[in-house]
Protein: ubiquitinyl hydrolase 1
Amino acid sequence: MSSGGASHGRLPSRTRNADRTTTQQAYNVPSPNEVVMDTGDYVGVDNDPEKDPIAIINPDNSEPEGDQLQDLPLANDYEAMKELVLPPLVDEPKILEDAYYTWTVDNWRERPKKEHGPVFMAGGYPWRILLFPHGNAVDQVSIYLEHGFEADKVPENWSCCVQFGLVLWNPNDPSLYCHTAAHHRFTKEDGDWGFTRFVELRRMYNVPWERGSRPLCENDTANITAYLRLVEDETGVLWHNFANYDSKKETGFVGLKNQGATCYLNSLLQSLYFTNSFRKAVYEIPTENDRSMQNSAYTLQRLFYQLQTSDQAVGTNELTKSFGWETRHIFEQQDVQELSRKLMERLEAKMKGTKAENVLPEMFSGKVKTYISCINVDYESSRIEDFWDIQLNVSGNRTLLDSFTDYIQVEKLEGENQYFAGEEYKLQDANKGVIFTSFPDVLHLQLKRFEYDIQRDMMMKINDRYEFPEVFDAAPYLSQDSDKSEPWTYQLHGVLVHSGDLNAGHYYAFLKPEKEGWFYRYDDDKVTKATMREVLEENFGGEYRTPNGYPRAPLQKKAPIMRQNSAYMLVYIRQSRLDKILCPVSEEDTPKHLQQRFEEEMALKEARRREQKEAHLYMFVKVITDATFRNYGGTDLTVFDGDHASDPSAPFTYRLRRAMTVGEFIAFFAAETGQDPKRLRPWLMVNRQNKTVRPDQPIMDLAPTLEEVSTKAATRDAYLRFWVEQAEDVDEEGNAVWPSYATQPNGAPTKGDTILLLLKHFDAEEQTLRGVGHVYISKDKKVEELVPLILQKMGWEGKLAPEEKLLLWEEIKPSMIDPMKAKQTLKGAELQDGDIVCFQRTSERKVDAASATDKPLQEPYATQRVQSCPHELTIGRIHRPNDRFEDAREYYDFLENKRVVRFVAHPRSEGTEFDPFELVLNSKINYDTLSERVGAHLGVPSTHIRFWTVNGATDKPKVPVRRSTNPSLRQILQPTGVISTNQRSDAFYLEILDISLAEFDTKKIVKLIWLSEGITKEDHYDLLVPKSGTLEDVIQALIKKAQIPDETEGGRIRLYETSSNRVYREPPRDSPVLNLSDYTQLYAERVPEEELAAEDSYFIQVFHFQNEVNRTHGVPFKFLLIEGEKFADTKKRLEKRTGLKGKSFEKIKFALVRRASYSKPQYLNDDDELWNVASSEDDYLGLDHADRTRSMRNGAGDLFLR
Structure:
């Protein structure tokens, strides 16, 4: 049988030697028949208007691999072959129907390049085989399965999930065949899938075919059987490629965008959001008077509101910024449990004093009792503590219930380990353990998937299989006297999943938003329905399991595959409180000010969208006038990037219609500035070749549009620039009389020989440069004839002293200021419209000096910056002989090279702090001159100043500036030859040293922490000691710097180094300072009196940890052991030794920790004797309590919420 052609398309392909491959997998988990695809198009087939895209998949191997595990069926035994070619799927979807169809292909070699087999029905849909008998651009047979709908009759939104196998076999000998299988979601857009490299053509005709005596294709004939297994798409996303997937449309919910590595944050936030009563409590926090983006409660409200109302995935940038996180926190995976606790602490603080004050403890906090109960007498020692989550061991437990049983396991204290029950009962047999007295309505269970591996000396992820139920009864884990008036049955609400290993992985969550209904998978910005298998079985961890009832396929003799994804946090809700916790949250529950703010923001976004849509109709126009020029004190005519609202010398900036005529623009500008439009004339400003911007010529014809003017000017700028002139004279009718470019009766403007010059005045007395205005003068006149015009403009007629003269300069460009010759004509001086002439008053004796063109420019001295307007620099002079600029050229040179530099005290400056200040400096000055200027400003010796560059990303000190080469200020702030310095070019940190910088270079900086009150108070010092010194010098430097009594008066001082929050060593006092490691922390403390005469062997090292001994924190220290002392008395000494008091000390649990078994702390009782328990030098005393600094387990740095 044969069938006419359809089309070819771009198809995925499976091949062992593909040049370009990607991986196609089943949804959530890889299929046993993983498909590798390429993007090659079909070639050698005529383009057909009916052609459809075709998927290409190649078999991984079409022949048996290794030993044959069982007898293979014959190809015409269809039921047996179905079991062979359709192996069980990991997804375990429900099977709707199995079908098969055989197509006999004769005259194989005479077939065209592409053939369609007959249409057959399966699952109520038409299907057919697509064959490339001579290969689809390869030297192998290509076979595909495709739907059989006519091209224009595929139902809209049609999809069908099919597992299929294709078998090519010899009709005369059914034992000769090859086969392969795949699965695919067939849709209107993706209607075919198959195998480009099914079998090599040359092998089809080989004699014999493997394990036989005949060829696979005999007498030019072979059979192709297609096996189809149609499965239920329960969630609507089985094997979905998620192209153009809309979470809101498909599920009613939206996801959260991943900022970089914030998937762990997203999974936690979604879990909290769908704890509806928590969401309502967050809305209760009063934020109407603190709507700052620094307020984490407000940004969380905004996030929840957007999740509630948005149609697209929501960003978390506002929230993380309110936490105070920097970019590095965004791209580092953090600890979810720690983040959850910190967020709860912060919100609980925000809720104090509101009606939601007790909501969080009531919702998330339970109580647990730690006890020691005597068996034979009525005596019990116990304490009850609050908990917000429970950490359960995964290792060694198969199920959640096993972990709870393990958690409350009772330890027998008997024999030599009897409990001392006070003087009345003495030593007694006792039970020691923990028991819960209440559970919260929302139970957060942290599964300890990450544990310290002593063999590898590192944290490892535990991938063991660990089952958890959809519903469980927590009553067996409660104390007998607990309130059991209502059931303690808990229902699964959320599963937070980690996929990957310790160092790299991905987080997502399965959550059940409503009491009845589906679980959904929240994977960053994508939300999909999830089956209970996906929620439970696929997150138990362990190896992939073959479904019950399905034997392993005969050709799949492979090692077990371990799951990379497993649950690490579970959320259960007490069944009797489900209605309360999952209460509806409506728009009325959201704060009104929040709704109003978002409405305003949406309106603003819509306005911006419209503005962007209409942007092509508008252009920006910048306008300067004589008024702006008179306020300007820099080079050229203005700074075009300035804002006129805050700087009167900056141009007026307007967004105007491109179709506006010049006449309409003049009328508009006149109305804006309160002027007569008849007296205004715009000059087009152009970029000159010397990179200045000057008026070029006036626009006399007011009819063209602004766009036509811009096009004619051929400007590349993003805006049009005008200098608008105001006429000084008018005729009898009130029309302007223009000195140049007069309009003739025929309407054509005439240029004439009059030119426009712009004037600037350099005031040598005030040390200022200002625009004055403009004048017109004939090009044939001499330079000296400008003087009367200038005197008239300035009102100086008859006011110059006899010895005073005017010096004139032409500002060609900022770095080229040329003196003008009095007797030269303006034409000879090559002046033209828009040129700038600068003048200054000076005495005759200075004229000769100024006219010496070869006079070198003196180096301007630094000056303090006093700002009256952004472009006027008023100089507060330092009292030095050369701190003035005597002529304009010197001042222009200063303007060209000036830098406004900010100076800030170094964070470690003590006793020498000063307010930040700015100096205007010449970038040509060298290091020594810079030191002199700063020293003069601060009134300190310049030799004692040390400068630090500033990190551009963090604004923190970067590196000290090296004086050795005496570099210029420009070289320091902008190093040459460095591609990226990440350094600010306008600021320094500086410290004022107690010694000269030269002497400082002979010292070593020793960073030390002084413990003045046990371990509770840390004073940080940077001590300067000679590089040739010893630790004795460090102690003397500490005494001087900290101003503490010396050792004779205050007692002996101990120095010790720590690493990873454990004592590293106590170096001898005569040890050289150069032996101190840069990778350890140095501590100093007074030696307690009781320890002064003690031997080293009597001490034990003490460190702090939180729950797990590898999560160290705090200040470690040495502690003296006393023989025969009960631990109850030892704790009293520890309280005094540490300085911890009250609840801070009471919350500490004490444990003996052996180096050989860090993960197994041995917790101590009051009657234990530490002297006896600590039997080895490798034993540590561990203080188990909360880490207030929250140092991260993975070394990523401190996680904090602002």
Remarks:
- The CA atoms of residues 379 and 424 lie 10 Å apart.
- Residues 247-360+589-609 form a domain with the Cathepsin B; Chain A fold (CATH 3.90.70.10).
